[in-house]
Amino acid sequence: MSVVAAAVVGSAVVGSYSANKASKAQAKSAREGMAAEERMADKNLEFQREMADQQREDFAPWRDVGQQALDSIWQGVQSGAFEVGNINLEDDPGYRVRMKEGVEAIDASAAARGRLLSGAQQKALTQFGQEQGSKEYANAYARAANEKARKFNILSGLSQGGQASAAGQAQTTGQLAQTGGNIMAQTGRGQNIAAQNVGAARASGYQNQAQVVNQAAQNWLTYKMNTPATTNTTQEQE
Question: Of 86, 128, 146, 218, which has fewest CB within 10 angstroms of its CB?
């Protein structure tokens, strides 16, 4: 093999090897870049899950108390616990005190006039008891209604707080789903681009290799065409 032929072949080998190495390097870089993006996407998803779990833990006490309050409200509605119903004045401390003071005052007044245990005293006691009972019943009913309303409002406020916490948790979960979906979609697009880049690098490598071989063949043909036949014959004889 002549020096020129060896140079042409050597050039083709070196060029083809270089093109192959370059395409492999490009493909490797594309795969490494995609792997880095996937690692960051996994870390991002894990961070999103940790934040959602922390918020779920923070919301848990409010949700639990709200659920218990809601259960108490429902049980109270079913049992009639929030209805006032009949009022027993004998169980009302204020009524007992005022009745006792009023009776003692009437008795003292009757005794001072020498009419203790008289018909007038009994009539005064009966009238006082009726008036006091009528007035105190309305007061006792209002107090009972206010107390039941107070308890209901407390439970209602707690249940609303639990409802707000549940809504906040639902919003957080929805945001996590949306963020996670976006991350996975971006990762998918990145994988697609990386696969295209790998394919493009390989195709470019094959094309470059073909160009190198083709150029080497053209160089050889050019050399052969420009070399005089006599020179070739002389060289062969020598």
Answer: 86
d(CA 52, CA 145): 43
Please, what CATH class does the domain formed by 3-237 belong to?
mainly alpha
Could you report the per-residue pLDDT of 10-44, keeping only the tens digit for each?
A: 555 555 556 566 667 677 777 777 777 788 788 88
Q: What is the pLDDT of residues 191-227, one digit of tens each?
A: 777 777 766 666 666 666 566 666 666 666 676 677 7
- Domain ranges for the chain: 3-237
Whole-structure pTM over 0.85, yes or no? no
Tell me the residue length of the chain.
Answer: 238
pLDDT of residue 65: 92
Is the CB of residue 39 less than 8 Å from the CB of residue 228? no
Buried b (16+ CB within 10 A) or exposed e, 88-109: ebeebeebeeebeebeeebeee
